[in-house]
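Memo to structure team: turn this sequence into structure tokens by end of day. - J.P.
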Amino acid sequence: MIVNVVLAGISLAAFYFVLSAGLSLVFGIMGVLNFASAGYFLVGLYTSWYLLGHGSGFVLAALGAGLLAGIAALVIEFVLLRPLYRNPGGQLLTTLGVMLILSEAVNWVFGPQIQQEPLSGFLGATVPIAGLPFPVYRLVLTGAGVVIYLLILLVLRGTSLGLKVRAGVESQTLAELSGIRVMPLRSLVYAIGGVLAGLAGALYGPFGGVYPGAGTDTLLLTFIVVVIGGLGSVGGTLVASLVIGLAEALVGFYAPNLALTVNVLAMIVVLVLRPQGLLGQAPGRRDTHAA
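Reply from structure team:
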């Protein structure tokens, strides 16, 4: 039994990583807590559900969800956020407004009811693990999280784009002085954040359901993960996702009513002992100057 619970926790961790990685990247390069991520999550959730309902395979539905969410994020960044780069408060309020507008939009178009997103074929099957049936989709979810993490790592550490992004995270001012064009870099990173949120939405549907409040329901856990891991740290996001996913699965199995409480307590403990998060930079080191 415990093996299945741990595997379920790891699959949750994989989902939390995909959900939170975009938010962490956007904060790292832009210095903005991007509430709109919950809206892009909804775009991906409903896009995937719609495509699956019209005969698309799951992989194509997930890719379509990520693409549409990324396009939405790029448009929002260009039209609404770009004029506010010197106004962090305005950025925060704008992203919050985008989240609320997108939530109300899907509620108006699709209705408030919870839609089921059943899995068919291989994804809907189970396999015996430790003598008990375990959903194949949970294993696929874990694999998807690993692949996305490796892709992010490959881009950040193995490409010139990744070098520029990491330079921008360390110090946007020095990055600009060294000739890096931070403006298009911000736009690209913001779009990537939208893609990751959309993919998270596609991954969420089969086990969490499809409904307009899904974005706000997952938003708190997203912030808990990025705060514990360290704002702007993708590696920290991975570690924090594992901590939260395993804690939620184990505590949820023995005491379901305490699962969220334990996550919040974990965040408080980390903030007291290490305010910058597990792998975040120490306060004062990070420069988020907006040009």
